[in-house]
Amino acid sequence: MICKLRLPLVVLATALAALSSTARAQAGVYGMFTVDRMSGIQSSPILPAGVAYNNSVNPLGFTGGAYYDFKSFGPVRVGVDLRGSTVNTHRGAQANSDGSGAHIYSGLAGVRLSFHTPVKFIKPYVEGAAGIGRSNYGVLTNANIYTYVNPGVQTISNLEYHGYAGVDIPFASFADWRMFEVGYGALNSFGNAAHTYPIMSISTGVVLHFPSLP
Questions:
Q1: Is the Cβ–Cβ distance between 201 and 166 less than 8 Å?
Q2: What gap in Å lies between CA 55 and CA 69, rounded to an integer?
Q3: In degrees rounded to 5, what are phi and psi of residue 71?
Q4: Contact, 54 vs 41, CB < 8 A?
Q5: Within a 10 A sphere around the Cβ of 98, how many other Cβ atoms?
Q6: What is the pLDDT of residues 34-68, one digit of tens each?
Q7: What pLDDT, in 10s, does the model give residues 14-41?
Q8: Residue 7 phi, psi dihedral angles, 5° rounding
Q9: CB-CB contact of 144 with 99 (8 Å)
Q10: Which strand (E) or helix (H) includes residue 17?
Q11: Which band of pLDDT confidence, cut at 50, 70 and 90, is reported for residue 191?
């Protein structure tokens, strides 16, 4: 009789342990140095006539965010992520001058999946995120760009979306080195100037994480 009860008890204990582990959550914050490459500029509908433009710009800057992992399914942990970034370059898309420079300001929210691996010091993750991105696309968009000493630069709001993948490497009990994060997505402008500007990014930085929470 004891032998017959042992297997159900083992199964029940395993299930309780699994529920206990999935009931714990982990949170963290991160800061990264980011380099973007935004393209699709030469086909943009907002280009002023008579000015030659390159097809891409390469702004760089800072990305910061916070995540909250709240559920585990075996080796996979599911969480949410909020991030913001600001990247700039003095070199705009104009082929023959610096122009107005180029900038992208982003605020995104997403869902992330992190993975436990047999190698404990390697912590990979993937994420999908979307939100609002504001940019001048590296383009002087004032209709009268040659009539002002300091011409206006229009910053336009866009739908922004990205997929990310990266690897974190622990170097302290409370901190990881985000060895790399690569991303691919786009800015999609609205209205009469609707256009897609693809964006590739690469980042590296530091993650500070908090102990598992009940």
A1: no
A2: 39
A3: -150, 140
A4: yes
A5: 12
A6: 999 999 999 998 887 788 899 999 999 999 999 99
A7: 433 443 344 456 899 999 999 999 999 9
A8: -60, -50
A9: no
A10: helix 2-22
A11: confident
- How far apart are alpha carbons 111 and 67 in whole angstroms? 9
Q: Residue 142: which pLDDT band, with cuts at 50, 70 and 90? A: low
Instruction: Output the six-digit token pair for 48.
Output: 């002023």
pLDDT value at residue 162: 98
From the list 174, 178, 147, the residue with the least C-alpha distance to 164 is 178
Rounded CA separation 142/154 (Å): 7
24-209 topology per CATH: Porin (2.40.160)
Token duo for residue 126: 């993937």
- The Cα 20–Cα 7 span in angstroms is 20
Any idea what DSSP says for residue 40? -
Q: What is the DSSP string of 30-48?
A: EEEEEEEEE---TT-TTPP
Q: Backbone phi, then psi, for 159, in 5-degree steps?
A: -75, 130
